[in-house]
UniProtKB/TrEMBL annotation:
GO molecular function terms attached to this record: laminin receptor activity
Translocase keyword on record: no
Bilayer disposition of the protein: Single-pass type I membrane protein
Sequence segments annotated as region (Disordered): 612-638
Family matches, as Pfam families: C2-set_2, Ig_3, V-set
Location, primary (coarse class): membrane
TM ranges: 552-575
Phylogenetic lineage: Eukaryota, Metazoa, Chordata, Craniata, Vertebrata
Keywords: Disulfide bond, Glycoprotein, Immunoglobulin domain, Membrane, Repeat, Signal, Transmembrane, Transmembrane helix
Organism: Pleurodeles waltl (Iberian ribbed newt)
Name of the protein in its database record: Ig-like domain-containing protein
InterPro entries: CD80_C2-set, Ig-like_dom, Ig-like_dom_sf, Ig-like_fold, Ig_sub, Ig_sub2, Ig_V-set, Surface_Rcpt/Adhesion_Mol
Gene Ontology cellular component list: plasma membrane
């Protein structure tokens, strides 16, 4: 056996065991096979050992291997567990050896990805070593996809470059996978993928990939993207790029021509927009034509000038523009093909409305009238007659019976085509009703005071417009409308007019009519009232209607009867007490014989309200004499 003894490596899960045989013993060592850490993190590499008797360990060394072996630390029994020797290497400021011989590496970089060796010496027993692989990981930047900016012709060969994908600064180098939609693309005869890996000065990797596939017409809507797969400590991860479309060129095979607007049936005055669309890319050149059929059944085309692009716009269309329109497409990649499409345009219309008889129409009072309305159009029409925005009757015929002045005026005939929204028209006719005047009075009878001013109104209908006159003098105001005239007379209500009334006369060339307004004098009643002892009797005139005056008289009579009854009761009471002695003279001395100086006066008065007292004044404000008052006195003195 050599000086180093026998070394055997036993591969156990995540542990590498080393052993060395001495004269009387063996050294067993345990080190993790792999250690994973993120860039910038801290790595811990454990090292444990077992030495058989009778020896103990004499030293512990840590090495790293890269183009040879370099010692980075040393620890011996005489140094103590807390004071290992860190050698002057690139790791001098970044490593620590713990008392249990664990190696700690701080601020790990990708350059630290290498093999680290733990060596244990045990004197005469020998030594043993354990190796650990340190793996460093750095997540790459998100992938960037750059689709081809050049349009590609449809082809079956994988010669067209679809897109490039790249990801930067990853460690270790990530993998790129291509997708079309959700389908992964693999290298094959029809698919070619090239990958380039570049090592940056930092030691990180940049990976670029290019995709080449056959191009089909369906690819114009396809979405391509790339996926980056990379590893981090203890896990696998992925990132996706943005979706990208490519421009596919393919020849035109057919076109379509549609009426894009309006959506409803076309009517005169509309703006019509026709759209011609081809299924090729790039779009072909378009031309538009009017098409007629010749006598021999052949199409005759007339090109419409000054049209560019895929739209044909006709403004303020007329019925004469109805017919067939054609779009032709010319594609340089399919130049021999006759590519065309047609559309039929029908412009709906309404001809001007004709009304019979012509406006204006004159009709005699009381006669019947029939007016007819008609308008030609492209589709069935509906008619209705209106007056002042109100429906008079449906249908094309307006029938009016027994004409009155109020039935005169303007009527409108409305025509519409229900199948074409917004296609309608209207025409008016003025109807004049002729005849003798008709007089209308707001009041046939007016109550007035004599010699007061009164306003009287008279209204007359007729055609020709009547003239209104009055048989009384006064101030007159006339107002005239289309078929009527009104007159207001302001005059003094004299006693003569109260007897005769006032007559309004309306006349025109076809006759005259008159009406009389009766003037009725308002009734005035005189009512008396009794004031208190300290006030003089007064009288006032109260104006009452006949029905009201009768009620007041009845109330006055009842009150007087009650007062007389009360007076009788008082006199009877005094008589019973001996206070009054009734004689033929109507007077009796009822004073105390011993006192002839005192006199007794009994006052009797009606118990009237203050309101009734105000009614005792005359019409001119004079006061009535005391003999007319409702107050009586009985002098009981001698």
């Amino acid at each position: 056996m050599s000086r180093l003894g026998l070394c055997s490596l036993l591969l156990l899960p995540l542990v590498l065991l080393g052993s060395g045989d001495g004269v009387n013993g063996k050294v067993l060592i345990s080190v993790p096979e792999e250690v994973e850490v993120k860039e910038g993190g801290t790595a811990r590499i454990d090292c444990s050992f077992n030495i058989s008797e009778p020896s103990n360990y004499t030293y512990q060394h840590w090495f790293y291997e890269k183009n040879g072996r370099t010692k980075i630390s040393y620890m011996g029994p005489d140094m103590g567990p807390d004071s290992p020797s860190i050698l002057d290497t690139e790791y001098k400021d970044r490593i620590t050896v713990l008392p249990n011989f664990t190696l700690v590496i701080r601020d790990v970089t990708v350059q630290d990805e290498r093999t680290f060796v733990c060596q244990i010496g045990a004197g005469v027993v020998g030594f043993a070593e354990g190796r650990a692989e340190l793996h460093v990981f750095k997540a790459p930047e998100p992938p960037v996809i750059k689709p081809s900016t050049v349009g590609m012709l449809v082809t079956d060969e994988p010669d067209e470059k679809i897109a490039d994908c790249s990801t930067r600064n990853g460690f270790p180098a990530p993998n790129i996978t291509w997708y079309k939609g959700r389908t992964p693309l693999q290298q094959s005869e029809k698919i070619r993928i090239t990958t380039t890996i570049t090592t940056e000065s930092s030691g990180l990797f940049t990976v670029s990939s290019a995709l080449y596939t056959p191009v089909r017409k369906e690819d114009r809507e396809a979405q391509f993207y790339c996926e980056v797969n990379y590893r981090m400590p203890g896990t696998d991860r992925m990132m996706e790029s943005d979706r990208a479309n490519i421009t596919v060129y393919y020849p035109t095979e057919k076109v379509t021509l549609i009426v894009e607007s309006p959506q409803e049936p076309v009517k005169e005055g509309d703006t019509v927009a026709m759209l011609c669309e081809a299924d090729g890319n790039p779009a072909p050149e378009y031309t538009f034509h009017r098409v007629w059929e010749s006598k021999d059944g052949q199409d005759v085309e007339e090109e419409i000038e000054d049209v560019t692009g895929e739209y044909l716009v006709l403004e303020n269309v007329k019925k004469e523009q109805s017919g067939r329109y054609r779009c032709r497409a010319f594609d340089i990649n399919n130049a021999e093909a006759d590519i065309k499409a047609d559309v039929e345009i029908s412009v709906n219309y309404l001809e001007p409305i004709e009304i019979s008889p012509k406006s204006p129409v004159e009709v005699m009072l009381g006669q019947d009238l029939v007016v007819r309305c008609n308008a030609d159009g492209s589709l069935p029409r509906e008619y209705e007659w209106k007056r002042k925005e109100k429906l008079e009757m449906p249908g094309s015929e307006l029938s009016l019976s027994n004409m009155t002045y109020k039935m005169g005026g303007r009527y409108s005939c409305l025509v519409s085509i229900p199948e074409v929204p917004g296609l309608n028209s209207s025409a008016d006719i003025d109807i004049l009703v002729k005849g003798h005047p008709q007089v209308s009075m707001k009041q046939q009878q007016v109550q007035v005071y004599e010699n007061e001013m009164v306003n009287l109104t008279c209204e007359a209908f007729g055609h020709p417009i009547p003239v209104i006159t009055w048989d009384a003098e006064g101030s007159v105001i006339h107002r005239q409308e289309s078929h009527s005239v009104s007159s207001q007379l302001s005059l003094l209500a004299t006693s003569e007019l109260l007897e005769s009334g006032v007559t309004c006369n309306a006349s025109n060339s076809l006759g005259s009519r008159s009406q009389t307004i009766r003037l009725e004098a308002r009734v005035v009643f005189l009512t008396t009232t009794t004031p208190t002892i300290d006030t003089s009797p007064t009288a006032t005139y109260t104006e009452l209607k006949k029905s009201e005056s009768r009620g007041v008289l009845i109330v006055v009579i009842i009150v007087c009867i009650l007062l007389l009854a009360i007076l009788g009761a008082v006199l009877y009471f005094l008589y019973k007490k001996g206070k009054i002695a009734c004689g033929r003279s109507g007077k009796q001395n009822i004073t105390n014989p011993d006192d002839q100086k005192d006199n007794i006066v009994v006052e009797m008065k009606t118990d009237r309200l203050p309101e009734e007292a105000e009614l005792l004044q005359g019409s001119n404000g004079e006061k009535r004499p005391s003999s007319d008052m409702g107050e009586k006195y009985i002098d009981l003195r001698n």
